[in-house]
Amino acid sequence: MDNECYSVSTSTVATKPKPTKAKPNKAKESVKTVPAGNIKPQGLTARSIFHEPWWLEAATDGKWGVVEVKQGDDVIGEMPYMLERKGLWRISELPPLTRTLGPVIKPQRAGGSDREWCYRMEIADQLVSKLPPCAHFHQLMDTRMSEAEAIAFSLHGYDVSIGYTMEIPPERTESEAWSALRRNTRNWVRRATERLTIREIASPDSFVDFYDSNLAIRKRNNVYGSTIMRRVLGEVRTRNAGVMLGAFDDNGLLVAETALVWDDRAVYYMLSSRRADAHGGAISLLIWEAARIAREKNLIFDLDGISTATILDFLSGFGGRLVTRYEIERMRADYGALRTVLRGEKMASKTGAKRLRKAPLEKT
């Protein structure tokens, strides 16, 4: 990116670079384009839990990589990605259970500069230019990613759109948080409190078994993969980076559950599941308990993305605020055309099956 906005001497390096002496006014770059499970980048203070090497290792089974920008020996920018093959295509999408990724850029040491956006755009430009070529690239960005990073992707030909998540600030007292609930949400939580008890679920296996059993009743599969879910939750528990909570009835039966993870900025509402016959306020009670944990840790409570009006209506009952996050995507024309054809065939197949189910049986 040629501009007069900001100039910083950097280098984009592989995971295990050979020691070299810095040359003045000339940045030396080498690029890692093949993901490797043994990558251990030094990382930045603004990294989310989803950027952590241990998380990526568990979520991708080692199929991830990272590009870095260094200034001297200091990492000032990094961006991890998952890379896998689907047939003939190399695809990079968000790993399972991974809420967001995107660039992580260290602020300028001076701080508060009105040219900070130029600096961030410059670093993001270098990171984007070093991402491996793929037929389809898609990531949701961490909410800390600014317009500067977004425009860097846009200038590289990526489609940039805006999505939303709901966040609850940590500075509220419990009474203030209770007052912020919508009336019907308060009623659900109050009634559920009378019938259910919240306890920690100690075993990832128990959590996943309950999760999968509820899906099986609905004739659905675990889209994240049961093995991956067990592995990620196991790592989370080992590192004390989250908690699994269950809502139990008077007979000690588990009727609903949720999984939370956290970093030094936020507690994230990650997963939830409930029995079909569970009390209608079971999930609301679990979310209320999760919000309490976030307040105790003095962390933001992130309620996940808003994808439908129904989800927005439910989550807005907890008194949060809408926060924007960027979504970036780039797709090769040939891959996009094939995907459109395959989706059309799949839709036609579903429509045909639906018509057959509705057709009256012939009498013989």
Automatic annotation (TrEMBL):
Superkingdom of the organism of origin: Bacteria
Biased composition, class Polar residues, residue ranges: 1-11
A Pfam family hit: Acetyltransf_6
Residues annotated as domain BioF2-like acetyltransferase: 182-299
Coiled-coil ranges per UniProt: none
Residue span of region Disordered: 1-38
Name of the protein: BioF2-like acetyltransferase domain-containing protein
